[in-house]
Design brief:
six-stranded antiparallel beta sheet; about 20% strand; alpha+beta; elongated; seven-stranded antiparallel beta sheet; about 450 residues
Length: about 450
């Protein structure tokens, strides 16, 4: 209850000394406006109606607002001040997230810029190895890359500008609220609470999907150059829903100094053989793949020599160390079979699925870069390849027992703490592979 100083000293500091008294700053009462209701002009607006968000006098409450929830204006101002203080903390947090998104978008734009430059250099190197008559086609691909770079960066710049504008509006609201609090302006405090906190402007920011160019040789001699603009495999930088923004941790935090779990034991201490029982996922495969009854053998029935179809494992590898073996039961002709790991969702309609994975092909190429073939990494019917994925280090390793060849691919932040799945890409009718999850394997001297 609100009491004047005389009543407070008489009752609450006399007979009822145990009561806790909160003193209200009544100096703001002089700022209260007079009522504008006809016939009430001589009365000040001592009350605030929460139902209609209006300042009213005592006569207004007795007449039009008798069934409404009304508070003394000074008390309403103090309640508004508390809510505004909470809003400032919440808004500062949201503003921090937006600033982090802007920073991440700058990183993405730099990545697009650098990737475009790297791919243009790669294109030039390939172009120097080909005959002069293909220069015109290479120029067309180069123009596509530059055009895509401009479109993607312009698209991100537009969203970035929208976010920066939103931050500026937040700064204006913060300044207004802080000024009202510092000046103890009762009217402004209540108006800020009504207009800024309880009726905030809608905040909907949709972050765009961006693409990165990948240049490589095409299948036909007459089309030696092509470019694919693939969606980013790592959505950690830009999330499409503002409320679910995920800010990537600093790079230095991705390599903490800690004792890593030994091979064959998971982070929670259970045996690897218990956690690593997995098989091929019959629900996560392309149209041309058939799977054996034990879900460990996959065969393709692609009709065309250039058709490729993939199948994933049914387990998510997101921590500790994983081991499995791949055996080429039957390789038909020279068309490659690819093996390694990938992320979900996986596009089974992609004509080049090996560009969406990390691993190797049966003709000795590292993926997805499709580097120069290594003769010692080639495999034939009956050969095995042993694979190891260290989720904590973000690295996949392989060993070819037939030749003694070993290699590794550093996936980096795209693997650390993320869910990766075993993947096999088969081409040409009759290609058959078998997978065998094992507790561990080691290279014998």
């Amino acid at each position: 209850m609100l009491f004047c100083r005389g009543c407070c000293e008489l009752v609450h500091q006399g007979k009822m000394r145990q009561h806790v008294v909160n003193t209200l700053d009544v100096s703001v009462q002089k700022q209260l406006p007079y009522c504008i209701t006809p016939g009430h002009e001589e009365y000040r607006c001592d009350l605030f109606c929460q139902d209609t968000n209006e300042f009213i006098c005592l006569l207004c409450q007795a007449e039009q607002h008798r069934h409404h929830q009304c508070f003394p204006t000074i008390k309403a101002a103090h309640l508004a001040k508390e809510e505004l203080s909470e809003w400032i903390a919440h808004t500062n947090t949201r503003k921090g997230k937006l600033k982090a998104v802007v920073k991440s978008m700058d990183i993405v734009m730099d990545t697009i810029e650098k990737r475009a430059e790297d791919e243009l250099m790669n294109l030039d190197e390939l172009l120097n190895a080909l005959i002069d008559k293909l220069e015109q086609q290479a120029k067309m691909v180069s123009d596509k890359i530059v055009e895509n770079k401009i479109q993607e960066i312009n698209k991100l710049c537009r969203v970035r500008k929208e976010i920066v504008t939103t931050i500026a509006n937040m700064n204006d609201d913060l300044a207004r609220v802080e000024r009202a609090i510092n000046q103890s302006d009762a009217v402004e405090l209540i108006l800020c609470n009504v207009e800024v906190v309880k009726q905030p402007p809608p905040l909907t920011i949709h972050l765009p999907q961006y693409t990165l160019p990948v240049v490589g040789p095409d299948q036909e001699l007459g089309q030696c150059f092509s470019v694919d603009f693939l969606p980013s495999q790592d959505p950690v930088f830009l999330d499409p829903v503002f409320q679910d923004i995920v800010i990537p941790p600093p790079v230095e935090d991705l390599h903490p100094e800690k004792i890593m779990p030994p091979d064959g034991v998971t982070r929670i201490g259970t045996g690897v053989s218990a956690d690593y029982e997995w098989a091929l996922d019959v629900l996560e495969k392309g149209d041309f793949i058939t799977v054996s009854t034990n879900s460990l053998i996959a065969t393709t029935n692609c009709n065309d020599v250039y058709e490729q179809s993939a199948i994933l494992g049914n387990v998510a590898m997101d921590h500790s160390v994983w081991y499995w073996k791949v055996k080429m039961l039957n390789l038909v002709g020279s068309k490659q079979v690819c093996f390694g790991v990938t992320r979900k969702p996986f596009d089974h309609t992609n004509p080049k699925p090996y560009k969406c994975m990390w691993g190797w092909s049966s003709n000795g190429c590292a993926l997805p870069s499709y580097e120069t073939r290594n003769a010692e990494a080639k495999v034939h019917s009956g050969d095995e390849v042993w694979l190891k994925l260290d989720c904590d280090l973000g690295r996949i390793e392989a060993y070819w027992p037939a030749t003694g060849m070993s290699g590794n691919i550093d996936i980096g932040v795209k693997a650390q703490g993320k869910q990766l799945y075993p993947v096999f890409v088969l081409a040409r009718r009759g290609n058959t592979v078998q997978t065998e999850p094992v507790k561990y394997w080691e290279i014998q001297d």
